[in-house]
Specification:
Elements (H helix, E strand, L loop, with lengths): L11 E3 L5 E3 L7 E6 L6 H19 L2 E7 L3 H10 L6 E3 L4 H5 L3 E6 L2 E6 L2 E5 L5 E5 L7 H12 L1
Length: 154
């Protein structure tokens, strides 16, 4: 995991609509950068819908939400449309950003060690540094947890 206070690695990724997003585009705002294993799975859907439902409150705290997985644009577009997600879902098929944020690697899945995308969230401050890390996420409650942390930090 990246340490709190360290500079967040820059990135340049497309979203579900083909729009390019760079971390530097959000300088001066809080960035909720959440990594999730796969579109349209139960846990990932709960987490994404939680962020969707808290999007106005997070926006009021000067935060933007960016989801990242290794799924392709078409998968992200279907997932966003099916669940009325109005925030960017970034495509990282080469797993470069996932690896830079230690969101890809060995994980325990039902008692078996497998290699894959980890469910982890970073809160990046307006100055571009890591303000908080959630290395283990409970999908259903996570958006509210992030909102509370942002309220305390703002």
């Amino acid at each position: 995991m990246l340490d709190v206070g360290s500079e967040a690695p820059g990135f340049e990724l497309e979203d579900q609509d083909g729009t390019l997003h760079r971390l530097s585009d959000y300088r001066g705002r809080w960035v909720v950068l959440y990594f999730y294993p796969r579109d349209d799975t139960p846990g990932c859907t709960k987490e994404a819908c939680g962020f969707r439902d808290h999007l106005d409150a997070l926006g009021d705290l000067n935060a933007v939400v960016l989801g990242v997985s290794a799924d392709d644009r078409a998968s992200h577009a279907r997932f966003a449309q099916k669940n009325a997600l109005t925030f960017p879902l970034l495509v990282d098929p080469d797993k470069r950003v996932l690896e830079a944020y230690d969101a890809y690697g060995d994980k325990n899945l039902y008692g078996k060690v497998v290699r894959g995308v980890k469910r982890v969230t970073y809160l990046i401050g307006p100055d571009g540094s890591v303000a908080r890390v959630w290395p283990k996420v409970k999908a259903a409650e996570h958006a509210e947890e992030v909102r509370r942390a942002l309220t305390e930090a703002a």
